[in-house]
Amino acid sequence: MTVDDPYSRKYRYSEDGWLWAGLAAPLAGGTLLVVRLALDDEVPTTVPVAVGAALAALILLLVRWFNATATISDGNHLTVQGAFRSHATAWADVQGIEIEVNPGAGAQGAPIRIVVLYDASGRRRVLPHLNDRNTPDLEGEVAALREVWMLRRGDGWAPIPKAADKIARMRRHPTPLVHIAVKAMLCAFLLAIVVFLIALASGTYDGSDDVTDTVFHPLALFMVLPLGVYIGTFVVGAILRRR
């Protein structure tokens, strides 16, 4: 976090050494798997290429997320800077800045408390790198952001009733659907690896049958299956939450 003036604050990831240390084990294991598949004459060339591409894409996505994401405030906006796009919320549209329990707190190394922004539509946005792991004085930093909010939102500011109702509904379901869908997608990806290795070991995927080769093809297992699980989880969750 850096402070240049009373309204400017920036929070971003700064523990680069820990990032690479955490990625070392899965990167080494994935590389070993790709090498073994590439050296196996019975494995089609597309297999190690697909597995390697999926592993590289996942690693690059994680590195991009940690290096690019940030929470930035200035005199006009509170900006959530994502890995591929940013969203700036005018202070007058902010409906709340709250410390909440992290839905993913059960994961090893995950922060227990995170900070979220509620905007004029009632949408909940997690503020990157504002949590009890990356920010020692979390309460103090949140208090500083709230002070900027109260100073810059304008004298005529008032809560928006529709947004308040939506926020209340969201608090009944604190875990965002995106988090649930991503976890389901990662589980599907891990399942795909297991299924594919079993198919190779048992000879099911050997190029002798069009149907089984299509079902157990790396593209079907490592891309179509996880993406389908992600979309299905998100749609079903959205329907259930509207009841």
Describe this structure in words.
- This protein is of the alpha+beta class.
- Helices cover 53% and strands 18% of the residues.
- The chain contains seven helices and eight strands.
- It has helices at 16-39, 46-68, 138-152, 161-172, 177-202, 210-215, 218-241; strands at 2-5, 8-12, 70-73, 77-81, 86-90, 96-101, 113-118, 124-131.
- The strands form two sheets. Strands 1-2-3-4-5 form a five-stranded antiparallel sheet. Strands 6-7-8 form a three-stranded antiparallel sheet.
- A hairpin with a 5-residue loop joins strand 7 and strand 8 (124-131).
- Helix 1 (16-39) packs antiparallel against helix 2, helix 2 (46-68) packs across helix 7 and helix 5 (177-202) packs antiparallel against helix 7 (218-241).
- The longest helix is centred in the C-terminal third of the chain and has 26 residues, at 177-202.
- The relative contact order is 0.11.
- The model has no long low-confidence stretch (mean pLDDT 82).
